[in-house]
Amino acid sequence: MYTTNEEDQRKAAALKARLAEQSATCDGNAGSDPTSSVPAVSMDEGAHKYVLIKASRPKSTEPEYFVVSSRFANYHQDAAEPMVESLERGGYGEIDVTGGGRINLDTSGKKISIYGFSYGFGLADHSISKRVVQADPRYKDFEIDTSNEGY
């Protein structure tokens, strides 16, 4: 199990800095295809690192939230980067990785646990993550619990 290391911390900091710079210079027309839809939830079966990402469509005043966990993410930055790229290609701007933790998706037991924190991105607001996951029809009958404890 990976926790964090200096390289992960540097990559997470670099991603946060790049996104902050883009948000500061955003003209409301970010990305190449503002009609592209990016799914709000992308989770792999099992317990994996996850990030909560906030982004806005061009000319929108309301942010949208995205929850992503991946079995291939050794570090939270590894979960964040592909989704950030999808959001950028989809025309989203003001992208911010607001925090992270872990998600345990148990489809056979219809249970999802959202918990913990990210060393690189900090603690996600798990109540927002829960709300985003609950809104996805694939998980409407799932029991979802949250906790700031654990890693």
What does it look like?
With 151 residues, this protein is of the alpha/beta class. It has a single domain (6-25, 39-146), classed as Janus/Ocnus (Pyruvoyl-Dependent Histidine Decarboxylase, Chain B). The chain contains three helices and six strands. A six-stranded mixed beta sheet has the order 1-3-2-4-5-6, sandwiched between helices. It starts with 5 loop residues before the first helix and ends with a strand. Belongs to the janus family.
List keywords for this structure.
28% strand, 151 residues, globular, alpha/beta, 6-stranded mixed β-sheet, 6 strands, Pyruvoyl-Dependent Histidine Decarboxylase, Chain B
* Distance between the ends: 10 Å
Strand content: 25-35%
Shape: globular
Radius of gyration, in Å, reads 15 Å
Q: Which CATH class?
A: Alpha Beta
Strand order of the largest sheet: 1-3-2-4-5-6
CATH topology: Pyruvoyl-Dependent Histidine Decarboxylase, Chain B
Secondary structure tally: strands: 6
The CATH homologous superfamily is termed Janus/Ocnus
The largest pleated sheet is described as: 6 strands, mixed
Q: What is the tally of helical segments?
A: 3
Structural class based on helices, strands and sheet pairing:
alpha/beta
Uncertain parts: none
How would you summarize this macromolecular structure in one to three sentences?
The chain is α/β, with parallel strands linked by helices. 29% of the residues lie in helices and 28% in strands.
Draw up the topology in text:
Elements: H1 6-25, E1 41-42, E2 46-56, E3 64-69, H2 76-89, E4 93-106, E5 111-115, H3 126-135, E6 143-147
Parallel strand pairs: 1-3, 5-6
Antiparallel strand pairs: 2-3, 2-4, 4-5
